[in-house]
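[Solved] Which block belongs to which protein?

Original post:
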Amino acid sequence: MSKSKLNPADLATPLSEEEFDELDEFLVSDVTSEDTLTIEGLDGYLTAMAIGPTTVPPSYWLPGVWGPSENDAPAFETTDQAQHILGLILRNMNGIVISLEDDPDEFEPVFGFSRVDDSEREYIDGEAWAFGFMQGLSVVRADWQALFDSEKGREWLSPLHLMGSEELTPEEQQLIDTPEQREALTKQIPASVAAIYRFWLPHRQAVHERKLAAAKLRTEPKVGRNDPCPCGSGKKFKKCCGAADTLH
């Protein structure tokens, strides 16, 4: 495995096929635990992070990639290897974000395939992807409450829930009994992702604008007591907006 230091300038570069395969191989290697997400599960997990209402820092969601326990964290050979793998994961995440921003309707989840017994028929299988997505959603589930409260939101989440949740009712289980049913649900997932992405888009934009406004306030020079008031009254700041009993 090639190893390199994590360079922030490279994080916007999409993964090459070779790097994608390298990450895939690492996730199922002996270095990781049995509970570590597969490449399909990771794609679903990162997609949940990308389309949700909150910007979640990697330090918060990264442990969930490896498994539910602190003991699931991989035993990296070196710090460089850890930084290299982290870089691949972050670049994969940014690639998902860029794809969704470009056209959510053209977003292509990384699904697997399955066969039943000796059948030559191959079915599209989104179980691992949906499991990863639901795991990602659970990291900040409270932030998603508005979607759960929406009738359309629950409809969009339905195929993801059926394919990716560990606990289903007997009635729900009957909806995924056959490979044909699971394939049909899997094919509904891309449209659900696009709809959920658009549902949270106004919220994400509002949060982004508030952060920009806060950053602007922090960088603007402080007005002195004897400086002209920025409201344009022509008075000194201390005699205008700087006075405690003055309102504009």
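(Second protein starts here: sequence line, then its structure tokens.)
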Amino acid sequence: MSSRNEIYSLPRGKLARWLTEPGRDTPHEIRVALVGTLFGTLPIFFGGVSNTVAVAWVLARRHGTLPFKCWLIAEILVCAVRLATLTLSRRRAREGKSTPTDFYILLAPLWGATVGYGALVSAMSRDWVSATLAFLSAAAMVGGICFRNFAAPRLVAVMICLSLGPCCIGALLGGEPVLLLSLLQIPFYLFAMSAAARHLNAMLISTMKAERENSHRARHDALTGLLNRDGLFSAAGPTSATPLKAGMTVFFVDLDGFKLVNDAHGHKAGDMLLVQVASRLRMLASAGAWVARMGGDEFVIVEPQVDRPPRDWASLVTEAIERPFELAPGLLVKVGASVGFTTMAADDLDVDQVLRRADLAMYAVKREKAPGEPVAAAERPA
């Protein structure tokens, strides 16, 4: 599995996309994670590379003919290019740059083809020892192919066909009756390992979806779908991809009269009110803003850059919430809102401190309000 800070590009070419297609409708971030697994498990990669190169070298020394020398050269070249591409891809992924994913994926079937070619020339040499060693090497690779690439079942099937398929041809043309048994073994092996790859792929996708859903539930409010407190701290914290920074404005919103609605009409009506308030806040917020429910009837909006003075923007929030809410047929209610805000300074690094400042500004609004004359917003000095 790739590291969380290594993001690999999705394949763009038709063939590479077909080879890595998971076979089901999966979210974009899971597709990215699946592609990332193809660049991991380095011990299996080096084990496979060392095995195929060693077998090709031994048999090239044993026979010394052109077909075996070509096999050894092809193994070394393909493995060297794969290793170089893998190293480059991992470095670029850590740096947040695009990776040569298409090229790396297409090198995998090419490597399978070199393994299959070695098995074929070994069988055609009519050297029973060489054929057995080459066939055993090709079969040993299948396990690594499956467990290293099961995030892409089609890639697994193609690689197995290219590495073991030539064994069947070699068994037919090699003149060794014992090897004919591979005509029964290899198709079954191909089917079994391809099915195993599909099964493991399905399990991996299900696990990733469950983790994604659990993460979403942990960071979002179940009632409104907004970020919750933990989700806001995670999104705006210093370790996030887009942390709070100077110039952002944090608005703290508290409903006025929510308890009266809850007491008079019940919790179901109160929940419906909170859902509709969340919807109006979402509509007011910009595309890049964070909107969160902090608990109860308190909300926070973090705007990267407001298009008007913050006090005017806070007034818009107040006006939006003061419009009547229809909680059920014939049931209209009105509530108010107290909105406090603070603008981030260059030295504001503590999310909790910034929220506390906006919260204090909101309570200042509440204290200043007179019956029938709601104050739209107050700013707490930094």
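Accepted answer:
You had them paired correctly. Confirming on the second one: The first strand starts at residue 249 and ends at 256.
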